[in-house]
Design a protein that fits this description.
The chain is mainly alpha-helical and about 80 residues long. The protein has three helices and no strands.
Length: about 80
Amino acid sequence: MRRSMERTIGEAPAVIPSMGGSICNDLFTDLLGLPAIWIPHSYAACSQHAPDEHILMSVTRTALPIMTGLYWDIGAGNVPEAG
């Protein structure tokens, strides 16, 4: 996944091993034994899940190519490496 993102954005992504929140990754990874990735497209002041939640256009302009490149690579049979 890192290599896919690096090819798309031309720099190494910031990798955070684990994040807080209410996402249920453990249902996929622990219960079903499926790989899960979490790629948040946000920033600290986004008011996530609040009535005034928003995303900056600069974040969107980066997020769309990242996800497009990642899905392209997965669809082409390039299984994301662990880590």
